[in-house]
Amino acid sequence: MKDFIRVMKALSDPNRVKIIKLLTVRELCVCEIQAALNISQPTVSKHLKILEDAGLVKSKKNGLWVIYSIADGASSPYAATLLGALRHWLNEDPEIAEIMKKAPDLDRSKICAK
User: Fold this and answer.
1) How many CB atoms neighbour CB 4 within 10 A?
2) Distance in angstroms (rounded) separating the CA atoms of residues 85 and 90
């Protein structure tokens, strides 16, 4: 039951749901997520840690950046089920649609250079 509660708690925050939706478009680094959501870097990092602990996202180091992507769901059947559903849910929500439109144009080399 711990895994189930961890996944549900991770998805109980609107910003974490937005991060998941952004990552369904493409892999992103913290500064790209920060730019898309207009929230602070420490807040983005905290949300990503919670999502990673729940098995919803994974990270890899790429030069200067840590790149986040949707997890494959292998660590938790609850994460796998909800990730599959979230690919289709909320796409018509105006706020979600707006941030998902931003995702392809986010460029870490320009954002992080500021």
Assistant:
1) 13
2) 10
For residues 59 and 48, the answer to whether their CB atoms sit within 8 Å is: yes
Handedness of CA 66, 47, 82, 104 (dihedral sign): negative
- This prediction has a pTM of 0.93
pLDDT tens-digit readout, 64-76 = 789 999 998 888 8
DSSP bridge partners of 62:
65
Could you count the other beta carbons within 10 Å of the beta carbon of residue 27?
18
pLDDT in tens, 89-106: 999 999 999 998 988 888
**Starting from the edge strand earliest in sequence, which strands make up the sheet with 65-70, in order?**
28-29, 65-70, 57-62
Nearest to 27 by CA among 104, 101, 111: 104
CATH domain 2-111 topology? Arc Repressor Mutant, subunit A (1.10.10)
HSE-CB for 3 with a 13 A CA cutoff: 12
Quick one: angle between helices 77-86 and 2-10, nearest 10? 30
